[in-house]
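Folding Problem: From Residues to Backbone Shape
Fields: amino acid sequence; protein backbone structure tokens
RECORD BEGINS BELOW THIS LINE
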Amino acid sequence: MPEVTFPGPEGRLEGRYQPSKIKDAPIALILHPHPQHGGTMNNKVVYNLYYTLHDLGFSVLRFNFRGVGRSQGEYDQGVGELSDAASALDYLQTMNPAAPQCWVAGFSFGAWIGMQLLMRRPEIVGFVSVSPPANLYDFSFLAPCPASGLIVNGLNDRVAPPEDVARLVAKLRTQRGVVISHETLEGANHFYEKGMDDMLRLVKGYVGPRLGDLSAPTTSPA
């Protein structure tokens, strides 16, 4: 689990980068929850998404937004954090110039940032949004949503209520040219204290077939 630092808009950003053993592997950026509510790149959902996508063959990067851990800067209401995410993607692309696919995955606040990054970076071909807080943030910028992806949430989520996520999905599904897959896990809350394995299984089941013939050795988190 190599520790990395790379330049961000307000100074150095701290991350963890795990390259794939596959030549010219796809790349995936994973974004963490709200910095002011304990969100870090070591959040359990983020950590498990990181290894799940690596197991599928991706070269993966997760990092701390500004002001979190050893990342420099201060919280910036999502504006600066979006710039951080763009810098992280730049770094990931520099490390993998021949990557055939680029994906973004985010959890909660990170899902909101990830969807904004999706709108600004046409090279992103797929996304995974876990528990997007559609009740707390405006997702109307997804007009239209430029890529197909997966949205997962828990039926017992009180932070991002399932009815709000369902309304977001319904809106996105009216757009032509994209397919939004949506899965709601019974018994899961916002933090997947129950249902983590089921959520990761859904991610694998969705992302894997979209990668074509890539194959990867199975690894486990240390």
Summary: Helices lie at 44-55, 79-95, 109-120, 162-172, 196-210. The first strand starts at residue 3 and ends at 8.
